[in-house]
Predict the 3D structure of the following.
Amino acid sequence: MANTKEYIRNRADSKIGKIVVDRDLCIGAASCIAVSGTTYELDGDNKAIVSGADSADDATLIMSAESCPTKAILLFDKDGKQVFPK
Ligand code: SF4
């Protein structure tokens, strides 16, 4: 089973309702942090965790997910439909 962590997003101006990090896929490359340092941080296992799910706008959040070399960041809309990766 995938080793994932889910983070609910509550921004009223956002179409994204949930951020999921697949901890098995995350290699600690920190590209996501370079794009959006207010959203993510690395935990003690060198895996990305979401510390600020509402801090970035949608464009920045999508860019951060796109920047991940292993596609470890998945984004879902408020109906639960996966919007990234497509
Ligand atoms: S960019 Fe991807 S692999 Fe790198 S820390 Fe973020 S989630 Fe992990």
User: Anything to note?
Assistant: The first helix runs from residue 31 to 35. The mean pLDDT is 97. The domain at 4-74 is CATH 3.30.70.20 (Alpha-Beta Plaits).
